[in-house]
Amino acid sequence: MKPEDYMWDFRNPYEWMTRTIAGKLPPMMITCAVTGGVQGREYNENLPETAEAQADQVYEAYQAGAVSVHIHARVPENLWLTTSNAEDYSRINGLIRERCPDIIINNTTGGGPWLTTEQRMCCLYADPAPDMASLNLGPFVLKMPLKDRKPPLPNPRDGFLFDSCLPASYADINLYGKTMKERGIKPELELYHPGQYWVLQDLIREGNIDPPYMVQFVMGFQTSSFPTPANVLSLINELPPRSLFTVIGVGPFQLPMNAMGIMMGGHVRVGMEDNIYYRRREKVKNNAQLVTRVRNLAETMNREVATVAQAREMLGLPAK
């Protein structure tokens, strides 16, 4: 593929129409976020927490068509906490790489609540190293009641109200970007609302990220943009040149936001970090179920689904 085959002016209606008529929208990458940094099996008994359970579901998602996997490693001794230990990421990455040799491993630097900036960067030092890592483009505020975690689940605890700000300064964000660049890890730029384009432009000016820029729109998360078609279009309109974009929808907005990504020539993220229900009152059975659904939707909408080799080429990652 040539860069112009998958990186173009997404704002141009004439180019979108021409590509749609000719069936030349780029191959669509599916990322799967198999677990998160907050909710656990107290919300959905099928959500993977241990390294082994995550690796099993990554393999199933890979078989279903996911080219990239987003990982939150949990503390082995306390599975409702996200780890600050690089060895825990090394274990998960190693198990994934054994079964999915070429998949794009994307570790989180968002981590979970209560971690410092330095602790969030532990995943960058895993061995095997991740191909990519998430990079939040600003702070966000959360207020949510967490459910009781009851036996027989391991590490039970009472529910509580989580009300906190996860801070991030320009210096913090540039430190993440600089460290990733030094270690040959591509950042996945997590954009929660349009004001964070200021931060993205600062990363570019400081030389701490390189194109192609993979910008991920986080839609429907607290203090992020509302998950509406109009807001997706507005965010696309502000993309810097030489960018790709992918779309997250949280909870019931996962599928409609995925559809926007498919339709507009972007890419999508699914997974149980973002959504624990397949449909109203029906919980997700596994992550592969969500990958299969979005793959089928893309094929129905005449979007080719990317292979791992195509995804690596588009993102500028080494072939495996």
Strand order of the largest sheet: 1-2-5-6-9-10-11-12
- The succession of helices and strands, N to C, reads HHEHEEEHEHEEEHEHEHEHEEEHH
Quickly give the CATH architecture. Answer: Alpha-Beta Barrel
Number of helix segments? Answer: 11
CATH superfamily: Aldolase class I
CATH topology category name: TIM Barrel
Distance between the termini: 17 Å
Q: Rounded to an integer, what's the Rg over CA atoms?
A: 18 Å
Structural class: alpha/beta
Proportion of strand residues: 15-25%
Task: Provide structural commentary.
- With 320 residues, the chain is an alpha/beta fold.
- The chain has eleven helices and 14 strands.
- β9, α7 and β10 form a beta-alpha-beta unit.
- α3 packs parallel to α10.
- The protein is globular and about 55 Å long.
- The two termini are 17 Å apart.
Can you tag this structure with a few keywords?
alpha/beta, TIM Barrel, two-stranded antiparallel ribbon, 11 helices, 14 strands, globular
